């Protein structure tokens, strides 16, 4: 665990320290986010934050390759380098979009190319987690791999609409996925706790934590497509590493839930981005537009329309991610009764906070009034 935490801290530190330089680069290159009608920010803000995030990813993975505990992941395997190369490709693609606003077909082609690079180098779904069922053909495996990677990248991209939202959601969800991947590895082997999925997820978490101080309320820089697609690709790669390469039956024996968890947990981690992505695609196709046509009806827009301030809207989406991610992990360590209690209480609290913003705002207003009077 300490090695993964060290790699996480390397990714966080490098990302944090390089972000100011990237912000300056974005200003000089003209990679700025203008204030558009559909946007919720009110000032022109630099993009290209994903470049700093990729720097953190690259530094952490290069250092990890020289750590004895993790050397086995790199020896004789091209998968870690394939993930790093694909991450660099989507970062470059996103940076080009941050600067020149590429059309959706060009971005989609680049995303598919990155997914094919992963699959070509072995980061590919080869089995379903339910009883280790082998996929029907290599073509099916390839198509499913590309689909998972492309959908993940676009889901994170779609949800990146408020200061600190995408980075925070991915850090929270990534933490849950890291704990699962690490626990799965410990049960799979009594001598070797190294895991590609745990490594990639630790790097993802560190990158998000390093970027968040620059991206919270009144963000000084946005991650842009270069960052959102990078995060989506990293989570997809770690998901594939768990789902396609490790038999989850080793973790939970005959427990049916354990068999489905490699499918359920990534969905839970990405529930907010996936839901936003699915609703946007249905909404736009239903109105006769491209699924990549931007609008002002994302989940964060809807929270704002309910009366939530921006910061509260972000915290609400954090809360939903925490409830679902932890709720999916708890059956591995607790009996059904406390798990049901957690789900009931967590969902009730999340629903009350989400759909009753006036009470929370009025409570905060009364508190602020009392402070001023004092």
TrEMBL record:
Query: Superkingdom, according to UniProt?
Result: Bacteria
TM region(s), chain numbering: 6-26, 47-67, 79-96, 108-130, 136-155, 162-181, 193-212, 224-243, 263-282, 312-334, 340-358
Membrane topology of this protein:
Multi-pass membrane protein
For this chain, one GO molecular function annotation is: metal ion binding
Q: Where does Mg(2+) bind?
A: 157, 225
The entry's localization annotation reads: Cell membrane
- Cofactor entry: Mg(2+)
What does the UniProt keyword field contain?
Cell membrane, Magnesium, Membrane, Metal-binding, Transferase, Transmembrane, Transmembrane helix
The record's section on InterPro entries has: Glycosyl_transferase_4 (IPR000715)
> What is the first-listed, main subcellular location in coarse terms?
membrane
Q: Per the UniProt entry, what are the Gene Ontology biological process annotations, in alphabetical order?
A: cell wall macromolecule biosynthetic process; cell wall organization; lipopolysaccharide biosynthetic process
Q: Name one GO cellular component term.
A: plasma membrane
Extract the PANTHER family matched here.
Answer: PHOSPHO-N-ACETYLMURAMOYL-PENTAPEPTIDE-TRANSFERASE, UNDECAPRENYL-PHOSPHATE ALPHA-N-ACETYLGLUCOSAMINYL 1-PHOSPHATE TRANSFERASE
The identity of this protein, by name, is Undecaprenyl/decaprenyl-phosphate alpha-N-acetylglucosaminyl 1-phosphate transferase
Organism for this UniProt entry: Candidatus Brachybacterium merdavium
